[in-house]
Amino acid sequence: MSGVVTVRYFAGAAEAAGREEELIEASDLGSLRDAITRRHGDALARVLGRCSLLVDGRRADAPGTPLPAGATIDVLPPFAGG
To answer: Splitting the chain (82 residues) into consecutive groups of 10 residues, what average pLDDT does each group show?
Structure first.
């Protein structure tokens, strides 16, 4: 069962998506990645492959990770420096 989640893009991911935030319907991380790629194409898909994903503040990597309706997913590209 899928629900609507809020996806927040940061840095290069926001630039590739052309926005900082959007709502997407997805049931797990795999379906979310597919939906993002369908919406934004290969440019964001390449960036997405290098990003960390946080689901409600917790890092998640596995495509089968469930996404509860109303969750917030942060898309964080690698950051240089520090």
So the answer is: 91 94 97 95 89 96 95 88 50
Whether 42 contacts 16, CB under 8 Å = no
φ, ψ for residue 31, nearest 5 deg: -70, -30
CA angle 9, 29, 4 (to 5 degrees): 70
How many angstroms separate the CA atoms of 26 and 43, rounded?
A: 20
Return d(Cα 2, Cα 43) in angstroms, integer.
Answer: 25
Distance CA 35, CA 57 (A): 21
The identity of residue 22, as a single letter, is E
Q: Measured at the alpha carbon of residue 37, what is the angle toward residues 78 and 40, in degrees to the nearest 5? A: 90
